[in-house]
Amino acid sequence: MAKRTPLYAAHRALGARLVEFGGWEMPVQYTSIIEEHHAVRRQAGLFDVSHMGEIELRGPHALAACQQLTVNDVGRLRDGQAQYSLLCLPSGGVVDDIIVYRLAADRLLLCVNAANTDTDVAWVREHAGGAEVVDRSAEFAQLALQGPLATAILRRLTTVALDDVAAFACREGEVAGCRTLLARTGYTGEDGWEIYCAPADAPGLWAALLDAGTPSGLRPVGLGARDTLRLERALPLYGHELTERTTPLEAGLGWVVRFAKGAFIGREALLRQRDAGVPRRLIGVVARDGIPRQGYRIVQAGKPVGEVTSGTKSPTLGKAIGLGYVAATLGAPGTALNIEIRGRLVDAEVVPLPFYRRAS
Asked: Tens digit of pLDDT for each residue in 160-189?
């Protein structure tokens, strides 16, 4: 049976359409995916992301354990800073993509994908050395407030100096009377906040945020628009762009991999791939007559050359967009390809990523 977040009753009251996702019963939409998508791009949207997992590394060996487990350099973080990173296998394949929060030198919080939580907890425990590993997933609910008006809405409910919190930083403080961890992170390509709180506080905090933001156009947003938003920004989704059979270098995430920091799981395999040349790479395509979907074949000159990992009709751009893997030689913007859609070949072109950039 699928698990439910503390906001299940709130979603039902709002008329959300609920689906199973990663072992959880989650809202896919409340009204229209397109309307919810535009609200995030133009005003603000509120997401329930309480299904995400949280793992804490504690003790004097926490930092060293995190350096060994992750490909990014957590030694660069100060207290109250965060970074995007990956857990990798010795083969270089991806166990999960995560966000690491440095709460203190001896306390690092990893936010992991919902469907991977149990796997990640076991992996971290296996490779944590002398660090204490605590699965804190049941201790947190998580709300995401995203969009150009997100900070202005949140400011109405907190005394935290939000303008002092940079992107990929976090701060503890009260929101609507609830103790929270506020992180200036997100998965939409917009400015915004991920708000960690106790599960019992989530319904009241959800209601307070909607009350404060609805006059400014804030809307509850489901997983449907979450997917179209992240895809416009070419943000990877585990099980699509990232798997145990794909490496960070193939996925265009080489900027996350910090070889100079020293040993970490997967380093040797990734060094070999870097030095030999990446055989395939993740590309973005725009299709002219049909929407690319996961699993559709990418074709050139009548021969299969790759596969789509994610695709949609972009609400912001009005174009059919997709991500997929092809041979590295075919990854240059402007390369002409075809997507096989229900037995017919549709013209497509490789384009620079991301598809969408937020105006500065």
From this structure: 999 999 999 999 999 999 999 999 999 999
Query: How far lies 180's CA from each of 125, 139, 194, 196, 221, in Å?
Result: 26, 12, 10, 5, 21
pLDDT of residue 285 exceeding 80: yes
Q: What is the pTM of this model?
A: 0.97
The CATH number assigned to the domain with range 279-360 reads 2.40.30.110
When pLDDT is cut at 50, 70 and 90, the band that residue 347 belongs to is very high
Q: Is 179 left (phi over 0), alpha (psi -120 to 50) or beta?
A: beta
- Residue intervals in the chain for CATH 3.30.1360.120: 3-49+140-232
Tokens in use for 225? 């628009």
What is the arithmetic mean of pLDDT over 65-76? Answer: 98
For the domain made up of 3-49+140-232, the CATH class stated in words is: alpha beta
Query: Chain centroid to CA 245: how far?
Result: 19
> Which of 241, 249, 271 lies closest to 259, judged by CA?
271
CATH of region 53-135, choose from 1.10.260.40, 3.30.1330.60, 3.30.70.1400, 3.30.559.30:
3.30.70.1400
- pLDDT of the residue at 284: 98
Tokens read off for 95: 């166990």
Token output for 147: 């969009």
End-to-end CA distance of the chain: 44
Q: Is 298 exposed, middle or buried (0-12, 13-18, 19+ CB in 10 A)?
A: buried
pLDDT higher than threshold 90 for residue 1: no
